[in-house]
Design goal:
There is one protein chain. By secondary structure, the protein is mainly β. The chain is built from three helices and ten strands; from the N terminus they run E-E-E-E-E-H-E-E-H-H-E-E-E. The protein has a domain of 86 residues. Strands 4, 6, 7, 8, 9 and 10 form a six-stranded mixed sheet that branches. The protein has a two-stranded antiparallel sheet with strand order 1-5. A two-stranded antiparallel ribbon has the order 2-3. Strand 2 and strand 3 form a beta hairpin. The longest helix is centred in the middle third of the chain and has 10 residues. Bound molecules: zinc ion (ZN). The site of zinc ion has 8 residues, from loops.
């Protein structure tokens, strides 16, 4: 039997934007910001962050360890299940997986910020069965989360070139909080939520 492809997973044949697709836009406030040469609806989120986009090319293979930026954002904004893409939000609490990241301070249940979209109860056993990352990570826990609040985006920060002509990637894997001024050179590929009212649940106890 083939392994089901998670909705949020990236596909190897899809094409990420080229640096030539980006341009320097100077809005009325005079601060140059990153933009696409050919803008499309939905390029920016409600906070004005520019999002990475992909041109869809068929024929690729599923990259289980990588998330597609557009589908990650869709799942995080709408609380959709990362595996089946259906609504994951539940009255009694929404399910998320979390684990101790190697270079992060020890996990505290009341301080979790995650870019990993939720799961619907049906897809939890599927993930545990097929996801090598969850199987091999002793710190992985299933959480029931009363409330999750969109809190920021992650991506690459670009610096405008001295001639104001193009963008130069300067900082990969940066985080930009919605509570701080938006970074004009951020190309977002992840949306984050902070989790509140978190309890650990045993996967076998899911009704
Ligand atoms: Zn699901």
């Amino acid at each position: 039997m083939s392994v089901p492809a998670p909705y949020v997973a990236a596909v190897s044949s899809d094409l990420a934007p080229l640096e030539t697709d980006l341009c320097v836009e100077v809005p009325r406030n005079g601060v140059p910001r990153i933009a696409y040469v050919k803008p499309r609806p939905g390029d920016r989120d409600a906070h004005g962050n520019l999002w990475g986009r992909h041109d869809r090319v068929t024929g690729g293979r599923v990259l289980f360890g990588e998330m597609d930026a557009e589908r990650q954002r869709e799942c995080m904004e709408g609380l959709l299940c990362q595996i089946c893409g259906q609504p994951a939000e539940r009255e009694g609490g929404t399910l998320f997986f979390e684990w101790q990241r190697p270079d992060a301070p020890p996990m505290q249940l009341n301080r979790i910020r995650t870019d990993m979209p939720p799961l619907c109860p049906t897809c939890v056993p599927v993930s545990l069965r097929y996801c090598p990352h969850l199987r091999d990570s002793p710190s992985a826990v299933l959480l029931r989360v009363r409330k999750s609040i969109p809190c920021g985006v992650g991506g690459t920060i670009y610096q405008v070139s001295p001639d104001m002509n193009h963008w130069i990637p300067s900082f990969a894997d940066a985080y930009s909080s919605y509570n701080k001024p938006r970074h004009p050179g951020m190309l977002a590929v992840r949306m984050f939520r902070k989790l509140r009212g978190v309890t650990v649940v045993a996967p076998e106890c899911l009704a």
